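INFO batch 0412 | record 1 of 1 | parsing
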Amino acid sequence: MGFETKYITPDIKLSEFKGKMYKAEAAFDFHILVWFIAGETTIIQGDSIRTFGAGDIFLIPRNYIATFLNYSKEGQNHQSVTMHLTTEKLKEFYEKHPPVVLPHPPQKVISFGRHPLLESCLVSLKPYFEVHDAFPENIASLKITEAISVLRLVDPAIDGVLANFEEPGKIDLADFMEKHFATNLPMERFGYLTGRSLSTFHRDFKKTFHTTPQKWLTEKRLVLAHYLMKEKKRKPSDVYLEAGFEDLSHFSFAFKKHFGYPPTNVPA
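INFO prediction complete | emitting tokens
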């Protein structure tokens, strides 16, 4: 069981997970173009849950905060080719090819299904993972440029996402936290994504919720887990990750301390 990553360059990689399930939570600093070779991934953001399988291609916008549950399926390890579309590379591209759609903040993962043009672009990367010599930077740059060009051809509105270089501004804290409390990110990241320094985030959080972020997050996650088990009849082992906990034993301890009974004895 383990997670293995092979890099062609720092921005192009082949990832493989050998195990039943792997969880990751993040809000990336760059856009991520993903092509699934095998396995399955569920992406959870607030009350939105989307599942992708072998052959699917999708774009995760930068600063998109979500929980990623990666599974092996049908006896095959979870495997994907991933390309990072960094702000630096995109600015360089759009200096030569001005956007035709005005930028707007990305709101969701963008799915392209199994589009043949994108699939051809990404499939062509696979043989390079077997090359042991240093991968020529000019070829890597061409492959990323090709991917951006194909994305624009497949979806003319994609400029509105890729050419948006704005940093997160100060937004409504209560609304943001209510949507993303189940995503387990460092407080510094929550602060950045709401347009605040860490100290300002703590100060504004206390003013808004009258408690500390950690206490509030733990309670919200426990209440969500309780709801999923009581109303949806799900097992503790099936809900603790989705609710934002990292460890089943810690979840069970916190649950019993908060509700007075273990998660295995939730009243019907």
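INFO post-check: The beta strands are 2-9, 12-18, 21-26, 31-38, 40-45, 48-53, 57-60, 66-71, 78-85, 110-113.
INFO record closed
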